Amino acid sequence: MDTMYYVKRIRDLREDHDYTQEYVATKLGTSQTMYVRYERAANELPIHHLLKLCDLYQVSADYILGLSNTSS
């Protein structure tokens, strides 16, 4: 399993919802620069941001992490 699978998944989810990086960063309570670093795998995604992304996109953590192909 690719441990960085979430990088592609969070970018795809954001684009599928037509959200900007700035919008998602605001929802996470972080800067756009930091969120961009998550999407580029320059920084690992903290668990508290993972949980906020699950809530934002209404998907499971397993889905974001690539452990499941089912979003719920």
Spell out the blueprint of helices and strands.
Blueprint: H1 5-16, H2 21-28, H3 32-39, H4 47-57, H5 61-65
Helix pairs in contact: 2-3
In short:
By secondary structure, this protein is mostly helical. Helices cover 61% and strands 0% of the residues.
How does this structure look, described?
The model has no long low-confidence stretch (mean pLDDT 93). The protein has helices at 5-16, 21-28, 32-39, 47-57, 61-65. The chain is built from five helices and no strands. α2 (21-28) packs across α3. The chain is mainly α.
Keywords:
single chain; 72 residues; mainly alpha; 5 helices; 0% strand; globular
Largest sheet: none
**Number of helical segments with 4 or more residues:** 5
Question: Would you tell me the structural class of the helices and strands?
Answer: mainly alpha
Number of strands: 0
Termini Cα gap: 20 Å
Unreliable stretches (pLDDT < 50, length at least 5) are none
Mean pLDDT: 93
Q: How would the global form be characterised?
A: globular
Estimated radius of gyration: 11 Å
Q: Helix content range of the residues, please?
A: 55-70%
Strand proportion, as a percent range, falls in: under 5%
Helix-strand pattern: HHHHH
